[in-house]
């Protein structure tokens, strides 16, 4: 199915396009449900990552925001379930945004959160501004990581919305506002470790100022919500060994280095290669391809990663490969959105092998075709 044909048909008949998106989304939802069927009770009852968010919503404004014992008590009293691996570990502003949900009973709050996630995903589909639009929408609906994010009550759909809204505002020639919106991606800053590379571009100063302005507002909210010493308390909470899972199982270079017995030198080498490739693309490519490369590289080197984080590969691949003139880049991008995450999950490949190799290959192809902006 050629994207130009899809674009032509769905541009003329957008209702048919949305119906196709709904069909693809239904199929992927059923696939996700089938893969997660042994864990269905956790999904339906909300005994997943929402336990952490709800604890943060209830504890924000107190000195116990990052107190694991208090979080467990809130979870047990509100949801009838708790987990030592799910204390609140987001920035304080995130808890402040969740504060209204903390005023609701747990199941009502969980239902509202999932509805908000659904709305965010629909807004992402609606706002995505880059051609081919309908192909991008169909691929987004086919992304397994999105379904995984919903099942675990994660907030990746909001990250997708902030990215799409930023790109939309840039197309409207509002770079300052685009930067302010993009700052909201700090909710999962560990996936955006390389985005400072695009802020240093000479053509992006107004966008960079917007990011700094938005970040300053979020920092102010954080200090108001958690007190002047929250950075120290927060850093101490992040050192907990319980919150990061087994990075040896992570679907990026951490899992890859462990599987191949490379150790820390191997991780550092892969991280250096990744950063060098992304830096070259960010310096020479368009803003869109630079952002896609930063998202790919950030995913690859992230020190805190789970399978639901593969959701971020979808906009990264749309920016990196679908827009590319290179056939190889387009193929690798499609593989990252569709079969590779699924194969990585259900087949006995070494942890991180397929995704890491595909991302590195895509970055290498991108840097070869990157050219200075005119």
Secondary-structure map:
Layout: H1 3-12, H2 14-35, H3 40-45, H4 50-59, H5 68-79, H6 92-98, H7 106-127, H8 133-141, H9 144-151, H10 156-171, H11 175-182, H12 196-199, H13 205-226, H14 230-238, H15 253-259, H16 263-284, H17 287-301, H18 313-322, H19 327-337, H20 339-346, H21 353-369
Helix pairs in contact: 1-2, 2-8, 2-9, 4-5, 4-6, 6-13, 7-10, 10-11, 11-13, 15-16, 16-17, 16-21, 17-18, 17-21, 18-19, 19-21, 20-21
Walk me through what this model shows.
The protein has one domain (3-369). Helices cover 68% and strands 0% of the residues. 48% of the residues are buried. The protein is built from 21 helices and no strands. With 374 residues, it is mostly helical. The chain starts with a helix and ends in a 5-residue tail after the last helix.
Q: What's the story with the biggest beta sheet?
A: none
End-to-end distance: 33 Å
Summing up helix and strand content along with how strands pair, one would put the structural category as mainly alpha
Number of helices: 21
List the helices and strands in order.
HHHHHHHHHHHHHHHHHHHHH
How much is the average pLDDT? 90
What is the quaternary state of this protein?
A: single chain
Instruction: Report the β-strand fraction as a percent range.
Output: under 5%
Poorly predicted segments: none
Q: Number of DSSP strands?
A: 0
Shape descriptor: globular
Radius of gyration: 20 Å
| The number of domains | 1
Helical content class: 55-70%
